[in-house]
Amino acid sequence: MAQVSINNDYSEWGLSTDAGERARLLQSPCVDTAPKSEWEASPGGPDRGTTSTLGAIFIVVNACLGAGLLNFPAAFSTAGGVAAGIVLQMGMLVFIISGLVILAYCSQASNERTYQEVVWAVCGKLTGVLCEVAIAVYTFGTCIAFLIIIGDQQDKIIAVMAKEPEGASGPWYTDRKFTISLTAFLFILPLSIPREIGFQKYASFLSVVGTWYVTAIVIIKYIWPDKEMTPGNILTRPASWMAVFNAMPTICFGFQCHVSSVPVFNSMQQPEVKTWGGVVTAAMVIALAVYMGTGICGFLTFGAAVDPDVLLSYPSEDMAVAVARAFIILSVLTSYPILHFCGRAVVEGLWLRYQGVSVEEDVGRERRRRVLQTLVWFLLTLLLALFIPDIGKVISVIGGLAACFIFVFPGLCLIQAKLSEMEEVKPASWWVLVSYGVLLVTLGAFIFGQTTANAIFVDLLA
Asked: What span is annotated as the signal peptide, if there is one (predicted)?
């Protein structure tokens, strides 16, 4: 491997290497990691991680699968049918896997252990700050989507319990805004305030069980449909090439596990790029099977009439689907605090870096600042969730940011890492990799611009 010289000077903003919670940011729920100061040894040294290859596959699959699954049938409808949806996902898979491998390579080259630290070290201060801001906005938007999902599922469950026809107005305590707010204040807020999150392993288990159960239900309901379910128009081709790109945000949101992949790579017993390539390939094939199963069967069951949240398309009285709704609610209730923790950590790191102080120097005000950050974050996400009608509108916005994590930042890291190699004569492989990095950045920027503009002018301002 050519010698690499990568800028990782944190002193530009007077930053200590442990600025707030940033050193623990976005650790995988199943990964125990040591502080960076204990990891100055090489990846193959005595301080290597404890995660096996099989364990790493499970963690990456868990990080990939999530609430975005509910929007995949609608994405197939948007893309123009089953064939267009399959081709789009298969094409995206190549870039998704390559981005994960690039991040592992750059993590080794820079000796950094989280996504934003890798971007900061490899690409410099400006790109690093943009990456951290993007993570904060992405986690904020995902928290809004989680609250909307809670409201969607509660509406159906309450309708069954109250024995009222769908769409009928019930008592004030069954109002959607009241039930979302009550659930959020009783469960989500208390779980979001603590400085550390010790229940991540339970959230991981619930998320995995809920996701697989939803997929199984969607497939079973397609094979043995209920009599009252009649599909809408089954599209066979996209209305235009732009319609295909409109499905990109859901796919990017669903497959975006890149931010949490770097800690997983460094937690492996053998953190080698070649081994990691096999891990992420296997994990993405599993995720692809789950997403395709849900997307294809959900779309063929309801056609163009499918809701942005596929579970809303099923009758409220269906008990098997009601169990799926309960699983999703439990998963989201425990996933919101984790996403909030990640966003809060970025905000905390940016604030301490701006102030030029370390966490040790500012311990006295940490609790007060943490509570204030949590309350502001929680109230803003709750307020927006109460007035945004469905998760499709949120995913259309944050899906563009997910494209940045999949394409733009890995592409920039690859370009900068190759430019930093001290070789007088550049081999053909060097030019190929730099060109591929440029392709990633260009493609990611296009997807981000197109999907974000479409979300703003079509979905939000419509």
From this structure: none
Q: How far is CA 110 from CA 14, 26, 115, 451, in A?
A: 19, 18, 11, 32
What is the rounded distance in angstroms from the CA atom of residue 10 to the CA atom of residue 131? 15
Contact, 296 vs 141, CB < 8 A? no
Number of H helices, E strands in the chain: 17, 0
Contact 330, 155 (CB under 8 A): no
In the prediction, which pLDDT does 148 show? 93
Q: Which tokens hold the place of 398?
A: 């944050």
What is the pTM for the complete model shown? 0.82
List the one residue out of 447, 90, 78, 398 whose CA is nearest residue 243.
Answer: 78
CB count, 10 Å around CB of 232? 14
Burial 237-251 (b: 16+ CB within 10 A, else e): ebeeeebbbbbbbbb
Question: Residues 295, 254: contact at Cβ < 8 Å?
Answer: no
Q: For 326-354, what is each residue's pLDDT tens digit?
A: 988 988 888 888 888 888 888 888 888 87
**175/152 Cα distance (integer angstroms):** 12
Size of the chain, expressed as the number of residues it contains: 462
Could you read off the pLDDT of 434-460 as tens digits, one per residue? 999 999 999 999 999 988 888 777 765
CB 215 within 8 A of CB 298: no
Per-residue pLDDT tens over the stretch 198-240:
555 556 676 778 888 999 999 999 999 887 777 778 887 887 7
Cα-Cα end-to-end distance for the chain: 53
**Rounded mean pLDDT, 30-36:** 41
What's CA 307's distance to the chain center, in Å?
21
Q: Are 347 and 4 in contact (CB under 8 A)?
A: no
